[in-house]
Amino acid sequence: MPRHVARQGDTLKDIAKKYKINLNNLTIANTHLENPEQLKSGDVLYIPDCSDGTFCPIEARSLKPQLLSMMGFSPRQIQEHYKIYQSYITKTNEVRMKLRSIDMQGSNSIHSSYRSLKIDESQTVANGKLHEMYFDNLGGNGRTAIGKVLEIIVKDFGSYEFWERDFRSTGLASQGWVILGYDFDDCHLHNYTQGAPDVVPIVRFEPLLVLDVCEHAYFLDYGTNRNSYIDAFFRNIDWYTVNSRLQNLKSTY
């Protein structure tokens, strides 16, 4: 967290105004001060700031060029979908800037501005991350699963064909996201569905393959024909990326 060294005549109010932060939040961040009402020259104050992890701004990832030439997806569909992802990044940063300046003392679990912003932050961050994983696991050559992930799919689902049918069926049943992931508690792969935009993260679960089935992901190309969209998705899965995610897991595999 950034620091400010007080000079003669400095007050908390002046410092809060200088850094454009809430006075109460500045006070809470500096409970170590002997006398906050009368700062001494040399007092070190901690400044809640966007360079602090709590309020850290994030940047949108670049769109992989090969996604604009995939079979089954028009460039416009991908570009418009990418704009949705960018909006989640933009809104995350907006929310964090507001959190930086809002008074935490009024927080309430039934209704409060702070509660609303924290809910918004969770939703924008989760949807932003899932969109990144979705775009990252596209751009493949249309082959079926390869490598270690194929081996584990067969072990956990009995066959690749059974897993694919379950994944596709989950996609037709979902109102948001379909995720093949590894459960750290039972040490198996599962196909799960999560809603959008109100994503509730599954704890101790690591996504490996992510499919967006919100209408914005396919409507320009397929209208309401989600089956055909899922066909196109399978023709373009990047299984190397999926295997890379699997290799990064700290698991027994």
Could you please describe the fold and organization of this structure?
Strands 4-3-5 form a 3-stranded antiparallel sheet. The protein has a two-stranded antiparallel ribbon with strand order 1-2. The longest helix is centred in the middle third of the chain and has 27 residues, at 75-101. The chain has helices at residues 12-19, 23-28, 75-101, 113-136, 147-157, 160-173, 219-222, 226-235, 239-247, and strands at residues 3-5, 44-46, 176-183, 188-195, 205-212. 45% of the residues lie in helices and 12% in strands. It has 253 residues and is of the alpha+beta class. The two termini are 39 Å apart. α3 (75-101) runs antiparallel to α4.
Condensed summary:
The chain has 253 residues and is an alpha+beta fold. It has helices at residues 12-19, 23-28, 75-101, 113-136, 147-157, 160-173, 219-222, 226-235, 239-247, and strands at 3-5, 44-46, 176-183, 188-195, 205-212. The strands form two sheets. Strands 4-3-5 form a three-stranded antiparallel β-sheet. It has a two-stranded antiparallel ribbon with strand order 1-2.
